[in-house]
Structures are given as structure tokens and as C-alpha cells.
Write a structure and sequence with these properties.
By secondary structure, the protein is of the alpha/beta class. About 40% of the residues lie in helices and about 20% in strands. The strands form two sheets. A seven-stranded mixed β-sheet has the order 3-2-1-4-5-10-11, with helices on both faces. Strands 7-8-6-9 form a four-stranded parallel β-sheet, sandwiched between helices.
């Protein structure tokens, strides 16, 4: 018999394309395992408000292709308190929920960890476009986000080339530079600015723009990470220093939306099924990840202690391919 009888599933924090695929997989794999499933709407806030619904295989039909999350998501300051966490655990027990799958990022994992301390078996699934969770090489939503951003940057670059402009494109990623790095390489940016490596030497960017113009390059693309930001003011300063028309475009929340790619649907589906299986085995306080080509799970505390850094080699390659810093 499964170690749990009823699994709850919720999505927390920022939405990410592929979350619906993960929800679908949790529900259907749990049911195959002989376990009931309840959906918790609006994350931890919905848990505290008892916005809990029964789910079956039909509940998750025709959602795998949809962006966002059918369960909704919200921030919840009350759940950061001991009282809120105890209340959440009590509500789980009231509704017969003895296991919960939490789909979200690091903050969501801390909530799952708190529920585990109060006797609710918990498993986290990495759902964030930022790719900033150290215990996994892949996070749900990243692939869709970079493809959305890449397509948008291509379009901006077309008009930048036509008008012989410098364009600064700001992408999301919170304090991590993965979206900027990947898009910078994939879009052939002349400069890629990421929080992990940026030295805030704006003059070197200006020198690069001027040097490229002297070599006959008529437009210049800068991909700027959200963690650096201030793209509009940066554009004004660059235009004043170079005399080249410079425009800033902030892509914003469009990167979180849209139909998930095949990659996001597939990984989310396997992770969701894996989470349901290990809950049914009796595991708790775990995080699902994809590491070195395999689906694995870690203790939440261990996962939160891990550090993730931008690859030095990949960053150096990005500079070499863009010929960034060439002033001759």
C-alpha cells in the first residue's frame, strides 16, 4: 500500500510554462498508484484559505499545452510565520492530505520544509524560469522563457539594424544571469551583462560600441539581465557618450507566458510523476531534480545549501563569440 493516502498539489511563487504538465503528471501518477489527489489553489495562501478541490484524471485533461498554472499562484507572507505554517499543516490534516507536492522555487521549498516539520510529507519540484536552483541542471519553464526571449530579441534586432541603433534588451532571471547568457549567445549579442560577472564598467561597453562602429558594424545589441536592470537610464548614458541612437526594451512578463516547449512539457511530466512516486514510497522533505542526465531527489535542506554559479568556460565563450572587449 502507498505510504500516503491523499496527495495535495500546489504551485507557488512565479508561474512558469510547464507547471500544468507537472500538475497533470502528479495527479495521474498518484491515481495510478491508488492515491487520491486534491488541488490547492493560489499556493500557500490558498492553503490557508482552504481553497482545496478534489482532482481526478479529467481535472487535468487538455492542460499540458497551456502556459501558467490552472491552480493559480500567489505570494503569502503569513506562511512565513510559525503560526501560518502550523495552520497550514492543520488544514492539510483536516482535509486528509498527508502528502504535498510543491511546484516552485527556493522560497516555495522553505514552505514545504516547514510543512514537513509539522508532519506533512512534502516533495518539491523546481518550477522557475530563472534556472537558479542549485540542486538541478534544469528548472521547469526555462526552455520556454529563453525561446520566447530569443524570438523577441531577433525581432528587435531587425529594427535595430534597419535604423543603425544600439539596442539594450533586458530579460528576466531575478538575480541570476542564465536567461541573459543563453539569449546573448543564441542571439549573437555584442555585449552580455549578467549579475555574476558584470563589473559595472560602463565605459568598456561604450568603447566596444565605438570600436565596432569604426570596424563598420552598423548596429549593436546588448542583452542585459534583470539583476542588473536600469536599462533605460543606461541607454540614455550610452547615447550621450557615443552619439549613436540607443533604445532600451524590457521584455518583462511575456517571458513567463505562452505554450510550453516540448522540453518543458517532457521534463515537467517526468518530474511530476517522480514526485508522486517518492511520496507514495514514504519519502518526505525532498526536492526533485535533474542532475548529470538523471532524475534524482535531495533533502530540501541539502538542496537549499547548494551553490550554483555561471560556468567560467561558457561565459568566456560568450565573450569570444561576441568579440566583446575588442577595441582595435
Amino acid at each position: 500500500m502507498p505510504a500516503v493516502k491523499t496527495i495535495g498539489v500546489l504551485t507557488s511563487g512565479g508561474d512558469a510554462p510547464g507547471m500544468n504538465a507537472a500538475i497533470r503528471a502528479v495527479v495521474r501518477k498518484a491515481i495510478v498508484n491508488g492515491v487520491s489527489v486534491k488541488g490547492i489553489k493560489k499556493g500557500y495562501q490558498g492553503l490557508l484559505n482552504e481553497e482545496i478541490i478534489d482532482m481526478d484524471t479529467r481535472s487535468v485533461s487538455d492542460i499540458i499545452q497551456r502556459g501558467g498554472t490552472i491552480l493559480g499562484t500567489a505570494r503569502c507572507s503569513e506562511f512565513r510565520t510559525e503560526e501560518g505554517q502550523q495552520k497550514g499543516a492543520d488544514i492539510c490534516k483536516k482535509h486528509g492530505i498527508d502528502g504535498i507536492v510543491v511546484i516552485g522555487g527556493d522560497g516555495s521549498y522553505r514552505g514545504a520544509q516547514a510543512l514537513a516539520r509539522h508532519g506533512i510529507n512534502t516533495v518539491g519540484i523546481p518550477g522557475t524560469i530563472d534556472l537558479d536552483i542549485a540542486c538541478t541542471d534544469y528548472t521547469i519553464g526555462f526552455d520556454t522563457a529563453i525561446n520566447t526571449a530569443m524570438d523577441a530579441i531577433d525581432k528587435v534586432r531587425d529594427t535595430s539594424s534597419s535604423h543603425e541603433r544600439c539596442s539594450i534588451i533586458e530579460v528576466m532571471g531575478r538575480n541570476a544571469g542564465y536567461i541573459a547568457l543563453w539569449c546573448g549567445v543564441a542571439n549573437g549579442a555584442e555585449d552580455i551583462l549578467i549579475p555574476e560577472k558584470y563589473d559595472y564598467n560602463e565605459q568598456s561597453i561604450i568603447n566596444n560600441i565605438i570600436a565596432n562602429r569604426r570596424r563598420g558594424k552598423t548596429h549593436h545589441l546588448i542583452v542585459n539581465a534583470e539583476g542588473i536592470g536600469h536599462s533605460t537610464s543606461m541607454a540614455r548614458r550610452i547615447e550621450a557618450a557615443t552619439g549613436i541612437e540607443t533604445r532600451a526594451t524590457i521584455l518583462g512578463y511575456m517571458q513567463r507566458g505562452g505554450n510550453p516547449t516540448c522540453t518543458d512539457r517532457y521534463y515537467a511530466s517526468i518530474m511530476g510523476a517522480y514526485a508522486a512516486d517518492i511520496l507514495c514510497e514514504g519519502k518526505s522533505n525532498r526536492v526533485v531534480g535533474f542532475k548529470n542526465g538523471a532524475f534524482v531527489d535531495f533533502d530540501i535542506e541539502e538542496a537549499l545549501q547548494m551553490q550554483k554559479n555561471i560556468s567560467e568556460y561558457e561565459f568566456e565563450v560568450s565573450r569570444a563569440l561576441s568579440m566583446s572587449g575588442m577595441t582595435k
